[in-house]
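User: Run a structure prediction on this.
Assistant: Running it now.
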Amino acid sequence: MPGRVAAAPPIVETEAGPVTLLDLATLRGRLSSLQEEASNKRAQAQSLQHLAEDHWRALGALLLTSRGSWSPEPQQVELLRQAQGLRHRIDADDSELTTTHGESHKGIGALAGKIEDWNKRRGITADKAALEAQINPLLLQLGRQVENTQVGDMEVIRSQAISAETQAQGLLSEASAVAQAVNSMGDEVQRRTASEKELGFDALYTSAYFQAFGPPSALSPLILKRGEQAYLSVPATLARQQSRRQWVGGSQGFSFPIGHTGIRYRVGSFHGHPVSQQYLGRIDLGTLVVSNLRFAFIGRVKSTSVPLAKLLHVQCYSDALAMFIEGRENPDFYLVDQPRFALFVVNWFLNHAL
């Protein structure tokens, strides 16, 4: 039974660019796999291209050795002449290598003779390699140019060369397509990583998911109205700004003891002034709930409920949200573990639900 091909994950177009509906860790793994796939396809294409070139050179060599069995075109005559000259020089190097390798040395000069032969063979080998580097492009060009000629296994070799080149081009095209996907996915991973680092959660993925499917509902202690659904329910502490007043300053006068009672009596007046200090006082522990209609706090001793339409502004802190409500001078503060995510949900409904 053939295996099923996994469906590609959906991609959502957002204001921040395309977002794949995969969590960031899975997306990074998918990116790594695509990079490896593109690299493998390019390596396979390169191997096939080398194989094709070997076949074309083999075809050129066959045409060169069968020079008397076919009629070259004018542009091929000069190729044949150059290749034939190089071929003679390579054959001469082969013959000299064989001769040098077969020589034997005896007596006192044996070691010196062996060293001389080794140096000679080394020079001949280098010269042969240089000649082969010159003849190979000529044989390659000759093999590609000659078409309407029947010499030995020419058609078989040509067919193998064309097949290898066709496969190589196909793999290169596939590698190019995968590389484009890698570039696009790499850009997305970079954007989402930066967003997660800044906000503490994958905001781009969350936005794309909400856009595609809507926000997932959440269980909450809030009694819902008709057509209302809760989408965020998190532990929170309700806090408000409060003031405390204290007197500061000094006095003028003097004091003296009364008998042996240990009590002192002060004469004079106190010239101080009151100073008011602001602080954030915690009111109650409970649950912050955000629905499609309102946000509410359900506490142990105090509960609040405010329609989203009355929300003027939200200030986000590292550990809290400050909600500014129409008709109120001071905001309510809600201390939560992930204030940026809570703000994201509130903002989403302000932009989409109202």
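The chain has a mean pLDDT of 86.
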